[in-house]
Amino acid sequence: EADIYQTPRYLVIGTGKKITLECSQTMGHDKMYWYQQDPGMELHLIHYSYGVNSTEKGDLSSESTVSRIRTEHFPLTLESARPSHTSQYLCASSLGTGGRGYTFGSGTRLTVV
Amino acid sequence: KNEVEQSPQNLTAQEGEFITINCSYSVGISALHWLQQHPGGGIVSLFMLSSGKKKHGRLIATINIQEKHSSLHITASHPRDSAVYICAAAFGNEKLTFGTGTRLTIIP
Questions:
Q1: Cystine design at B46: which of A94, B16, B34, B80 (Cβ 3.0–4.6 Å)?
Q2: Which of residues 66-105 of A touch B (CB under 8 A)?
C-alpha cells in the first residue's frame, strides 16, 4: 500500500546531539515537504523539494537541513539539537496537482532536553 | 497574503452532539485539507476538497468556493473524536498554509 513513513515517532534527546528525522514515501511523488509545529502553534513550511537534488527553504526559518538524493527519501537533520528545536515535525509528499494529491506522514515529536 | 482562520479555537461538547468546525481563507484556493491530530501528536488526513461536499462515516466536509469557507461536521460525536482538527489550504501552488487548529473535547 502506498504510504509515507516517518521515524522515529517520538524522540527525546540531549542538547548538542546530532539527529536525523527520516521520511520515506512509496508513491514516487516528486514533491516532498517538511512542516514544523511549535507547541500551541500552527504548522509552517520549513523545507521542500520538487525533485532529486532540489531543496528549498520554506516560509519559516529553520536551523535544520534536508537532502534529496533519492526520490523516495527526504531526511531532515539537526547538527546540534537545542531546546528551541522542541517541536512536532510533519513530512508530506504530493503529486503536484495544485495541492490535491497530498499524503501526510504521522509526524515526529521531538523533545530536546 | 494567504491566510487561513479556524473557529472556534476550543470546543467542548457532550457525547452525541452535532459538531461544526469552521475554516475561512483569504483568497482563492486550489485545494483544502482537513486533518486530525491526536493528543499524542499523530496526524491523520481526513479530507481533501476542491468543491462540494465529502462524507466519510460520521464526518462530513463542505466547501463554499464563493464564500471562501469550509466546514467540518461530526454527527453523533463520541469521546474518541476528541482531537485537534486542522484545516490547510493550497493557494494555487503545492505549499500548504495551515490554520491554528480547533481543539475538540467530547465529554461522555
A1: B34
A2: 88, 90, 92, 94, 96, 98-100, 102-105
